[in-house]
Write a structure and sequence with these properties.
alpha+beta, 4-stranded antiparallel β-sheet, 3 helices, globular
Length: about 90
């Protein structure tokens, strides 16, 4: 299992457009990808409603976990995505 942490810098947080892009990026990998905020309950990062329900705002730290096939590649890709988009 791999884990990354990232602090959101986008002034609008994870709103609809970047949430959709995040879900698409996570769906490219066969491993389980989960996202949580502040140690709370994790949601499936491949499901837009779960990601939106987190209501992530600027300055909040998210944690993403990757478990299964291609977890290393998924962690690298998602970290690059977060830095480029959020």
């Amino acid at each position: 299992m791999k884990e990354i942490k990232y602090t959101i810098t986008d002034p609008l947080g994870i709103h609809a457009r970047p949430a959709g892009l995040l879900v698409k990026e996570a769906a490219k990998f066969p491993c389980a990808v989960n996202i949580s905020v502040g140690g709370g309950n994790a949601v499936d990062a491949k499901r837009i409603m779960g990601v939106m329900r987190l209501a992530v705002k600027q300055g909040m730290e998210i944690s993403m976990t990757f478990d299964g096939a291609e977890e290393d590649a998924a962690a690298q890709a998602m970290e690059a995505f977060l830095k480029a988009n959020l």
